[in-house]
Amino acid sequence: MLRACLRGANATARKNCGRTPLTNLQHCRHYTAGESSGGGGAAKVVAAGLLTVGGGIGGTVLYAKWDHKFRAAVENNVPYSDWLLGLALGPASQDNGLPVKKQVETAQPPSMMDKPVKASKAKSEKKAKEAAESPIPTQSIEEASAEASHIISAMGEVQSVPAPCDTEGKAAKEEECKECHGHEATPATAVVHPDTESPALTEPLKERPVEEVTARLAQQDQEEQDTLASVSASLEDSLASSAKATLQAIGAQEAALQAIARHTHKLKEAMEAEVPPEEKSAQWKELEATIAERTSAVTDAETALLKANEALNSLKSVIDQSKGLKVSAVRPLVLAAEENLHNMVVDLDKVVTKVQSAESEAKVVSQYSELVNEAKQQFQREVTSLTPEIHANWKSLTGKLSADDLNALIAHAHRRIDQLNRELAEQRVREQIHIEASLEQQRLEDQKALEKAVSTALQHYKEDARLEQERKLSELREVMEAEMRTQLRRQAAAHQDHVQDVLKVQEQELRADAEQVLSSKLLEQETRYRQLSQEQLDNFTLDVNTAYARLKGVEEAIDSHVVAEEEARKAHLLWLSVEALNYTLKTADAEVPTVPLEGAAQAVRDSCRDNDFAMALASALPEESLQRGVYSEASLRARFNSLRSLARRVALIDETHNSLYQYFLSYLQAALLFEDKQEAPPSQLSSEDLDPFRLLAYASYCLEHGDLELAAKLMNQLRGEARRVAEDWLTEARLTLETKQVVSLLSAYANAVGLGTTQAP
Amino acid sequence: MSEKELGKKWDRCLADGAIKLGTGLGLGIVFSVLFFKRHTWPISFGSGTGLGMAYANCQNDLRSFYLLHRSDKEQ
């Protein structure tokens, strides 16, 4: 814009310059310079001004953008600046103050909500319950169990606790929380089966009726009982069988043990005891018997052991099966069964080990016995070889033997001793090797035995530990169950209390509602009844009123009839009286006025006592006419004639002209002046017509034509003495006119009234 | 009757005039006889006076309506 101005200025300058190209170049230059300078100067000034203004506006806008208060101040003070600033910067942000408040406001309720939620959460964390936390439950408390299920699911929720608890503060809310958690005490059966509750928890919003829940719970109980019974029965059976088998096995083992022991003992006896041959054979027979016994016992024991093992295995399988059922009430049974099993196994193993040790001992003893027997037999052979007569039983030979035998025996013994010493030396030499070998063997055996023992012991211990653990678990579970039961009982109690309270409150509410409804209904009924009765009354009253009104109407009609007839009569009377009055007017003779109208007027007055108009009219009759009567028109007319000549004669006389000379002149005028006897008066009197002679002519004409009024009016225009002489006549004329007017009015009125009151047929 | 009044006034005038004239004449005669040696001038004087008085009275009577009397003024 500046440039355009500049350009314009330069263009104009150039044009000016161009107009005078050849001449006055200097001037042009001057002009141009001047103009350009002038124009440039002006342009510069304009440019500077515009620049300043633009800079000022831009600076204001920028500062307003930065400082809102400044912007507000500018907008307040400078008109249209708000439009400009709005255009440049967009609408002013005016909610600087509000967001803070809103934040504060919005911060408050969440803070209030957070605390109880935290408290409840802490509480929920404290109490290790298995109930799941699900979304906000409904507020209706209709059935206890449904509520229980809801409240189990409403663990973390605090505010919409349905009970009419205080909602005054956090403490109250904590109370609520406690109650809420207390409400979680469901019936023991419900919580005892958390797995059955899990489907209930997954749909917390759906209420189940009590019957369904109890039926379900009863069903579950029944099922449990059934399984329990079956499991216990099976366990018992298997336990019994296994116990029997185990006992049998143990018995058999014991028997075997005893048999082995007896056998061993017998063997020992047989070996050590020096018994005569018969007894020896008996002994050996006994021994054989015992051996047979032992073998049989051992076999029996083995079979029994096998059976027992089978039974135990079956028991184990049953136990595993029952474990697999996951019914907690079975656990103690299972545990007991397992313990029994373990005990039986342990016993069985013990017995087996005893038997085995006894067997080994027996083996040792048998070996020893064999060795001893062998030695004995050897010795016996030797002895017999030495002394064929002597028997083996050399202990009893002390009395029988001779010295040779003894020496031989001693020599044999010495030889035997030498042999034995040599063997002993040999043995001693081979001792180490034998010992090592035996040690090795023993070690191996020991190792085997150890391993076996260790394994069995480990097994047993493992089993023991497991059983212990199981027992502990079951104990713990029981303890926990008991605790849970107590807690649940407590919760149930609290819940019951709460429910009682709620029920009480509800009862009250319902009662209040019912009472209200009852009272409202009663009120309604009452009002209806009242309304009806009132209606009846109103109807009756209405009827009575209508009848009364009709009666009244009839009466009024009759009265109005009467009144109308009265009116008619009165009107007639009036008319008659007016006619009478009219007639009295006609009683005027010439020169004699009428009869005084007083009587007729009185009659008229009497006949129109209550008629203001007629009264007014009647009282408007002039007194003179009443007292004296009025003159008739004819008499007035006659009188006028004489009056006329007199008026003619005094036509010139008035206030100023009233000397005798004037009188003479007036008489002269009257004698000499001739006018029309009668002249029709014009509709408008001019000043010419006010001449007495003319007036008299007009009046005469009027009179002759019966227009007394106009005549009187015309006569009224007389002035001076003529007027004075006509005064009486005027008065009389006036009187007559008045009376006639009143009478005519009265008669017209009477006629009208009479017409009005005449009933149409 | 106002129209009869003028007649009455004229009657009075004439009557009065007659009386005054006669009275004047009489007095004139008397005076002329008595005091003025039978000159005729007291007779004419007397009758003239009488006539004049009658004239004045008549005029006054005829004018009486138009004149305001002192009593009216005082009222």
UniProtKB/TrEMBL annotation, chain B:
It is a single-pass membrane protein. The chain crosses the membrane at residues 18-36. It is found in: Mitochondrion inner membrane. GO terms for cellular component: MICOS complex. InterPro entries: Mic10. Keywords: Membrane, Mitochondrion, Mitochondrion inner membrane, Transmembrane, Transmembrane helix. Its main location: mitochondrion. Belongs to the MICOS complex subunit Mic10 family. Component of the MICOS complex, a large protein complex of the mitochondrial inner membrane that plays crucial roles in the maintenance of crista junctions, inner membrane architecture, and formation of contact sites to the outer membrane. Component of the mitochondrial contact site and cristae organizing system (MICOS) complex. This is MICOS complex subunit MIC10.
